[in-house]
């Protein structure tokens, strides 16, 4: 644990530490380039003899400050920002996998990640096996091969709200000598820090709660610094052996615990360029300053909405780990601060798909939006929207019930949200 102060203080203060006379608020370095006095100085940056900024595709001071804040929130040693959560998922695996390699992932993951892993990365020659995260350890272990390089999962899955047993997954990953990568988007470090349960790398779609105001698409990757790449050097040659595209330098030897993030920055960001704009990083930082306050309200409101839905006879079923009879309640109590998970509740209505659609059309305060986890309550029906190309059978295979309503509870007054649900159910 690298934490020295409470997480609320880190939300507000971490990252930007102004010197005497400098702006109190993180400045937006909206500049692609950085000026040097002599050609020799600039040369030293390229030779890695000196540290400094030269081009924003590689690094930018605003972005770096926000990444440092997220690293502190997660209790990691280093972090980087990406232009989207998708870029973060891709980089997190691609940083340690190449053509001919394989990784294991749970099937309970975000639809975009499912497609990235199951289709697009396969085209690059990187194979993956999907496992049910609730299978027993032997069954999950059976998916590993000699060329397996990582295990990937989500703390709380979007949209099925399965809660990951992080300790179990860390144990399986480490028994096979690979890192556990966890997408912690829905829980946020306010509710859960996966490193405390043995995860090695954490990624985020910062588009969701971290930004919190639905202004900027973005992502982040954080390294715990705990995985011993050199112990499994044959597997992670990209980190442990000289990189010909980077001055013949071996990342683990040159950068120690920061090897993984340095490689992702110096190699992947350099070559693929999915950097966020400094302005978006600035907006993300504003969001992070109130993350601790908003998450409490999101969870408090979601708990009230879940309890209301549970008691309504028109509701067929509901998933929310804050409910005592939820299948993930005990795990949520163990892994999440105060048992708080996130502000998203999923449920189905009696009468199925058509009734669900009608209910959503009758909502007034809670709007239909292809978004989740921001301050305004919003709602989505995956079968009609994000997953509309799938048949009911295919939906069930993906773990999504055709009548599933993904209800993202915002930070408005809970009574107003419930009143809107109530009128829409009656209509
Ligand atoms: C939205 C989301 C992503 C993808 O992030 P983008 O910022 O939309 O690219 C990845 N994982 C989870 C859990 C998400 O909710």
Write a structural description.
Strand 4, helix 7 (166-175) and strand 5 (180-183) form a beta-alpha-beta unit. The protein is of the alpha/beta class and 427 residues long. The termini are far apart. It is globular and about 75 Å long. The longest helix is centred in the C-terminal third of the chain and has 20 residues, at 291-310. It is 38% helix and 13% strand. Helix 1 runs antiparallel to helix 3, helix 3 (61-74) packs parallel to helix 12 and helix 15 crosses helix 17 (414-426). A seven-stranded mixed sheet has the order 1-7-6-5-4-2-3, sandwiched between helices. It has a five-stranded mixed sheet with strand order 8-9-12-11-10. The model has no long low-confidence stretch (mean pLDDT 95). The protein folds into two domains: 7-286, Type I PLP-dependent aspartate aminotransferase-like (Major domain) (Aspartate Aminotransferase, domain 2); 294-426, Aspartate Aminotransferase, domain 1 (Alpha-Beta Complex). Pyridoxal-5'-phosphate (PLP) binds next to helix 4 and helix 5.
**Overall mean confidence score, pLDDT:** 95
Strand order of the largest sheet: 1-7-6-5-4-2-3
CATH superfamily of the largest domain: Type I PLP-dependent aspartate aminotransferase-like (Major domain)
Q: Give the % helix.
A: 25-40%
Task: Compose a concise summary of this entry.
With 427 residues, the chain is of the alpha/beta class. The protein is built from 17 helices and twelve strands. The chain has a seven-stranded mixed sheet, with helices on both faces. A five-stranded mixed sheet has the order 8-9-12-11-10.
């Amino acid at each position: 644990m690298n934490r020295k102060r409470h997480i609320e203080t880190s939300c507000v203060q971490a990252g930007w530490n102004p010197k005497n006379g400098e702006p109190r608020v993180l400045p937006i370095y909206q500049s692609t380039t950085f000026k040097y006095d002599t050609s020799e100085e600039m040369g030293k940056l390229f030779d890695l003899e000196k540290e400094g900024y030269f081009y924003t595709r590689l690094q930018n001071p605003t972005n770096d400050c926000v990444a440092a804040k997220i690293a502190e929130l997660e209790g990691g040693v280093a972090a980087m920002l990406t232009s989207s959560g998708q870029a973060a998922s891709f980089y997190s695996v691609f940083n340690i996998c190449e053509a001919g390699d394989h990784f294991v992932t749970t099937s309970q993951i975000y639809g975009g990640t499912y497609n990235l892993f199951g289709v697009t990365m396969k085209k690059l020659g990187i194979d993956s096996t999907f496992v049910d995260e609730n299978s027993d350890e032997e069954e999950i272990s059976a998916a590993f091969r000699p060329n397996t390089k990582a295990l990937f999962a989500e703390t709380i899955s979007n949209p099925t709200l399965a809660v990951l047993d992080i300790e179990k997954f860390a144990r399986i990953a480490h028994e096979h000598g690979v890192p556990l990568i966890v997408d912690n988007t829905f829980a946020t470090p306010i509710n859960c820090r996966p490193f405390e349960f043995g995860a090695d790398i954490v990624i985020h779609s910062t588009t969701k709660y971290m930004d919190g105001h639905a202004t900027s698409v973005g992502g982040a990757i954080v390294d715990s610094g705990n995985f011993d790449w050199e112990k499994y050097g044959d597997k992670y040659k990209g980190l442990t052996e000289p990189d010909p595209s980077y001055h013949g330098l071996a990342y683990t030897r040159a950068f120690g615990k920061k090897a993984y993030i340095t490689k992702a920055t110096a190699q992947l960001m350099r070559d693929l360029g999915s950097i966020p704009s400094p302005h978006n990083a600035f907006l993300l930082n504003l969001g992070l300053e109130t993350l601790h306050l908003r998450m409490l309200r999101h969870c408090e409101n979601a708990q009230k909405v879940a309890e209301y839905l549970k008691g309504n006879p028109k509701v067929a079923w509901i998933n929310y780990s804050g409910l005592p009879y939820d299948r993930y309640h005990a795990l949520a109590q163990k892994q999440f601060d105060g048992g708080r998970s996130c502000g998203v509740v999923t449920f189905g209505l009696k009468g199925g798909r058509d009734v669900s659609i009608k209910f959503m059309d009758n909502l007034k305060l809670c709007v239909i939006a292809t978004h989740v986890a921001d301050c305004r309550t919003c709602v989505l029906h995956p079968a009609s929207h994000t997953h509309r190309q799938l048949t009911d059978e295919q939906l069930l295979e993906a773990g999504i019930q055709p009548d599933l309503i993904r209800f993202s509870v915002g930070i408005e007054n809970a009574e107003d949200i419930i009143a809107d649900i109530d009128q829409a159910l009656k209509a």
